[in-house]
Structure formats: structure tokens, C-alpha cells
Amino acid sequence: MHRNPLEVFIKESFIKKTLVVFIMKRTITINRWEFDLINLAMALIALIIVFSLIFFLIPSLKDNIKDINAEKTSDNTSVSQNSNAIQQEALIIQVIDGDTFQINTGDYVRLIGINAPERTERYYDDSKLFLESLINNKSVLLEGDLDNRDNYGRLLKYAYSSDGLMINSELVRRGYAVPMEISPNLKYREKISNAYQQCINEKLRLCNI
Question: Residue 74 and residue 36: Cα distance in Å, rounded?
Fold first, then answer.
């Protein structure tokens, strides 16, 4: 068996044997009365490391989680906006009044950004008849905004005729409805506002009361 040269040298030297015994005894002595102190120091160091990790890493972890949640929210909002921006074709089966109608799916649709006269108000019949002339028993394209339904369960949409005319702004431009902005559905607020200004300039119906 191969022997370590250092081990051979120590064993063959009386002086070094004596030193080894002394060191071993000293080590044993240290182990006996300093062992608890060393363990305590190591435990304190471990605690310091743990608290340092908690202090520095947890806030960073929270920030990362917030960033991830923000990204998810942004992605979801983006998906929702893109989904609502898609124009879907629908057949109009009934006009309720100047800003509401029913489509072939059974859903009722409320036009976004405008308000037509109610049954007891002036121009109610005119407004309803004009909307019927534009879309009744015809196919239209419907486009959403951020909020898809109102408190009554009606779909909130912008409607377009087959030739690309926006029904919402046309009703306002011709004086059969007025602008009504309800956040967050403000995608075409400027277009509807411009239509209203044109109606005022021409003093048509609701713009001449």
C-alpha cells in the first residue's frame, strides 16, 4: 500500500510527534469550550444572510410580479380592443327607436356615442323612421369599443351600412340624435362631434331646438 510521505516523516520524527500530540490536545480543548460559540456565530451569520435575502430579494420579486401582472393586463386589454375593433356583419330585424335596434342573433344593439329622442320627446318618430330607412331588414357591420354591453345587457356598437356610412354619426349629422359621451367608449368621439357641429351649422331638427 502506498504511504503518504508526510505521514512517514511525522511518524519518524519524535519532535513532530510531540507537536502533533500538542496540537491535537489543543484542538480538543478548543472544540470543548469554543464549539458553542462557533455554532452561535455561524447561526448569526446564517440569519444575517437570510434577512439580507429577504430585505433585498422580496421587494424585487414583488416588482417583478407587478410587472408580469401589468404585462398580462396590457395584453388582455390589447386582445379585448382588437376583438372589439373587428367589424361583424348582422341583419337588422327590428328598429326600436332612433338609437336602438335588434339583430338576427336576438341581441339588442345600442348605438355608441349618441342619444335619440325618447317616445314622449319631439322628433322621436322622425328619428326612428330615419334609422329604419337606413338599416331595417338590411345587413350592417357592427364594431365595438372598450365596453361591450350596457347595464341593460344591450350590445354597444358602431354600425356601418353596406356602403361604409357610419350610422351613429349620420344620425347626429342629420339632426335625429345628439352626441352622448360615456367613458370609456370614446373611440369616435371626434367624428361624432364634427357631425354635430355640421348639424348645428345647418340648424337641422334637434340642432335647431
Answer: 56
Residue ranges of domains in the chain: 5-83, 87-208
pLDDT in tens, 152-182: 999 999 999 999 999 999 999 999 999 999 9
pTM: 0.63
Q: Which residue type is seen at 14?
A: F
- What's CA 199's distance to the chain center, in Å? 37
CB-based burial, 116-149: b 16+ in 10 Å, e otherwise: bbeeeeebbebbbebbbebbeeeebbbbbbeeee
Domain 87-208 carries which CATH code? 2.40.50.90
* Pair 185, 146: CB distance under 8 Å: yes
φ, ψ for residue 85, nearest 5 deg: -75, -20
- CA nearest to 97, candidates 154, 28, 162: 154
- H-run or E-run covering 130: helix 124-135
C-alpha cell at 5: 510521505
